[in-house]
Design a protein that fits this description.
CATH topology of the largest domain: Aspartate Aminotransferase, domain 2
Number of helices: 30
Structural class: alpha/beta
Number of domains: 4
CATH class of the largest domain: Alpha Beta
CATH superfamily of the largest domain: Type I PLP-dependent aspartate aminotransferase-like (Major domain)
Helix content: 40-55%
Radius of gyration: 32 Å
């Protein structure tokens, strides 16, 4: 997208498009167009004359040929029930070309009408005949990948062929191809004509400037040609093509009794059989009925005809299986209510489908409410697909430390939810609007105001990420003393110690029992707080570090009552209560879900109430706040604390109006705050985590219970009881999971907790492997695969060996430490 060469002539993007077309299809010459209609226009104006007849299996070229007083004659094979129902009639083609001398070309559409595939043998026979009569064969490649995959699945001689080989074989059976970029290449706009015949190309090249643009861009921007070229290159990726096809098959398998054809890009519903009691406008009635029922839109384009087939086309790589299963469920409910529906009545005389207007007696039907993810996939990232043998070698090379694994070798990355969020199109739009300045950018003010609105706090200090806020807070508030917290976090604890404090764990005892099902395992035990004061006296606590949705306890939430109780205790003893509000939104969701008093309270109001029970907070915004970088320190009303924080900000982070962040990132942050409190989003996010946790529990896998909000934690002590804790079972389990499946997880146990002053390991009560789920990045299909891999590993857990250090850094050793097997 950002390497578009927007020169008027001879852009590098056009050269790349030529290269990819040559490598994929074998054609020497490429004429770009703005879309498929542009390609048809050029072919018609350069090749068709009055009285010509084009023989085809498709009516796609018909509109433009009519303008030249020419015609399209459909000569389809009469074997509609065959595997290749889109085949052209070879016998008829031969006879017609012998009898008709006014045929400028023969045109074949692959996967005709979206649901009629064409065989390679049919294409090759047609090409042989057209060559004998010196007539070019044009093939529409827009669905070439699906057609090639269908050939491989249904013709035994191609069963072991690579998709790219079959695509090239299809291409060799044509003289000219046209390609709609919006189909298999997954580009939003664009098209092309390709050929190896220079005389044909010369015609298109000289004509394209009249209708489309110069022959080196043809009505496309440079960035569009770049995306188009990459789409052609990617469309033959085996895993991608198989996934797209499988999604359609899985969707089709969920439909019950509905009459349809399974197509290349979705299903094609037989509307006349769906509504046997309706005699006209069945397709438009079905479209209106489905939208009324569920909000799902399907439609017909082109001329208004009596066609009885309507497509439900699934955008490639855009919907997950959970969403598609609910669409199928809505369609099944629709089918069961079809008798309630009367047909649409046409009230005008349209030429085109988009001109049609109807009246309707709106039926009384049950509304379908979706509860799946409230977003679709707009951008994808390819993942590593190494073999087990490859991964054995890789994990040894990085010293069995999953932090050191190259991302290119990882299939599913559950290392962290920090900065791994899939940002929304709205956020990227804001990013591009960011105005950079070292002074006060407009984006700084948006950043501050959204956070004030959410927290209710007076002062907002920007920071490049959470640990910067922790550093500033610790240095401002700690000289010595004890810092109570509801379980340690690595960087938080280190900053407290560097400032002269001593971390003291005051979380409830249930949090240290992975099998306890207490629902508020993030709570602070007031008695433990009182014990610190009783032992060390008033004034020994500089502040209380209160984490919401406690990470190392397993993503366990804090109750509203406990937040209030601890706050009141702090007020009594004049102790600041500082939240780690990194996952405050997830905590708010659990309060809404688990505490009946908050069932109907919006997430934003729950958050405001939670924050009211604190004197400030630090936040790593790379989690709940839906950004890839950023953080802040918020202070309720302590002006002196705020001024000291700004002093440190200037020294260590950046200006007081950016804290080391770009204006663009602050703009994204402000938008992320608005999105994070949307109930549909936060519900989908937390429930996805719960889904994985419950699948593992059902299979008897030892995890921290109950399942948390941002991650599922495997209990390595119970998973690998044959390993002593000083053999680092969590580290060994994380490494073994990568080898087994390509899933990267993180150790959170003996390695993470470090060593005591006497050199012994801390040996914490919890020895865990964290499966941290990035926000808006993975689907439940990924969760299923992760669960399957863990279950398979559990069955051979006795084969997993312990580890010992071969390189051990002094601080935060889990980041760079290296191990070897014992």
């Amino acid at each position: 997208l950002y390497i578009g060469d927007e020169t008027y002539a001879g852009s590098r993007n056009f050269e790349y498009l030529q290269e990819v077309v040559k490598n994929t299809f074998g054609f020497d010459y490429v004429c770009p167009t703005h879309n498929l209609k542009g390609s048809h226009k050029l072919i018609t104006t350069t090749m068709v004359s009055e009285g010509d007849v084009i023989f085809s299996n498709s009516r796609l070229p018909e509109e433009l040929t009519k303008d030249h007083s020419a015609s399209v004659e459909i000569i389809m094979s009469d074997q509609e029930d065959s595997k290749f129902s889109g085949n052209i009639d070879i016998k008829a083609l031969k006879i017609n070309l012998q009898e008709n001398k006014n045929t400028p070309y023969v045109y074949i559409e692959l996967y005709k009408s979206g649901f009629r595939p064409v065989s390679l043998s049919n294409l090759e026979e047609a090409h042989k005949i057209t060559k004998e009569h010196n007539v070019p064969l044009i093939i529409n490649f827009s669905r070439i990948v699906e057609n090639a995959l269908y050939i491989r699945e249904n013709v035994s001689e191609f069963a072991d062929k690579k998709l790219a080989e079959i695509v090239k074989k299809i291409a060799s059976a044509s003289d000219i191809c046209v390609l709609d970029a919006a189909q298999d290449p997954r580009c939003n706009v664009g098209g092309l004509i390709a050929t190896s015949e220079y005389k044909l190309y010369e015609k298109y090249m000289n004509e394209v400037v009249v209708y489309e643009g110069l022959h080196t861009y043809g009505g496309m921007a440079g960035r569009t040609m770049e995306i188009f070229a990459r789409g052609i290159k990617e469309m033959v990726y085996e895993h991608q093509a198989i996934w797209i096809s499988q999604q359609i098959k899985d969707f089709a398998s969920l439909l019950k009794g509905i009459p349809f054809y399974t197509g290349s890009d979705g299903i094609y519903i037989k509307a006349d059989e769906f509504f046997p009691h309706i005699k006209e406008n069945q397709t438009n009635t079905l479209a209106a009925f489905l939208y009324l029922k569920s909000g799902v839109r399907i439609f017909l384009d082109g001329r208004f005809t009596d066609c009885n087939i309507i497509p439900l086309q699934i955008p490639r790589l855009s919907f997950n299986n959970n969403q598609l299963s609910q669409i199928a469920e809505a369609l099944n409910e629709l089918y069961n209510e079809r008798d309630k529906v009367s047909g649409l009545k046409l009230i005008n005389n349209p030429e085109w489908n988009d001109e049609a207007r109807f009246k309707w007696e709106v039926p009384d039907i049950t509304e379908y409410n979706f509860d799946c993810e409230p977003y679709i996939i707009t951008t994808i990232e390819y993942v590593g697909m190494d073999t087990i043998e490859d991964r054995k070698k890789i994990i040894k090379e990085v010293g069995y430390n999953t932090f050191l694994l190259p991302s290119k070798d990882i299939t599913i990355d559950f290392l962290t939810d920090s900065g791994t969020t899939a940002q929304s199109v709205e956020q990227w739009s804001k990013y591009n609007e960011g105005v950079e300045t070292q002074a006060s950018s407009k984006d700084y003010f948006s950043f501050v105001e959204t956070l004030k609105d959410i927290t209710g706090y007076k002062y907002i200090v920007p920071a490049h990420q959470g640990r910067a806020g922790e550093h500033i807070m610790s240095q401002c508030l700690i000289e010595d003393g004890y810092v109570p917290g509801n379980m340690y976090f690595t960087t938080t604890k280190l900053h407290q110690e560097l400032a002269g404090g001593t971390f003291t764990d005051v979380i409830v005892d249930e949090a240290h029992d992975p099998q306890s099902t207490f629902i508020w395992k993030g709570n602070i035990d007031i008695k433990k707080l009182q014990a610190i004061i009783d032992e060390h006296g008033e004034g020994c606590i500089p502040y209380i570090s209160f984490e919401l949705s406690v990470n190392l306890a397993g993503g366990q939430p804090v109750s509203m009552d406990n937040a209030k109780e601890v706050y009141e205790f702090c007020k009594k003893h004049k102790i600041p209560q500082m939240f780690d509000a990194t996952r405050a939104v997830e905590n708010a969701y659990m309060i809404k879900k688990k505490d009946p008093r908050y069932k109907d309270v919006p997430i934003k109001e729950i958050l405001r109430k939670l924050f009211s029970y604190g004197d400030g907070c630090t936040v790593s915004s790379k989690k709940d706040y839906l950004v890839n970088i950023g953080g802040f320190l918020a202070i309720k009303d302590d002006e002196d604390f705020y001024k000291r924080a700004l002093e440190m900000l200037r020294k260590y982070e950046g200006s007081i109006t950016n804290g080391g962040m770009s204006a663009a990132d602050m703009a994204v942050h402000a938008q992320g705050v608005k999105e994070m409190i949307q109930f549909e989003y936060i519900k989908a996010r937390v429930e996805q985590t719960q889904y994985l946790g419950n699948k593992l529990l059902d299979a008897g896998i030892p995890i921290v219970e109950p399942p948390g909000t941002h991650a599922i934690f495997l209990d390595a002590k119970r998973f690998l009881p044959h390993l002593d804790q000083d053999e680092y079972p969590a580290q060994a389990l994380a490494a073994s999971l990568f080898v087994e499946s390509g899933v990267r997880a993180m150790e959170r146990g003996n390695v993470s907790s470090g060593r005591k002053k006497n050199g012994e390991n801390y040996r914490p009560k919890l020895e865990l492997v964290r499966l941290t789920i990035p926000r808006r990045a993975y689907t439940n299909s990924h969760m299923n695969k992760v669960a399957e891999s863990i279950i398979a590993l559990y069955k051979k857990r006795d084969t997993i060996k312990g580890l010992r250090f071969i390189y051990e850094p002094e601080n935060l050793r889990f980041f760079q430490g290296r191990f070897e097997e014992i």
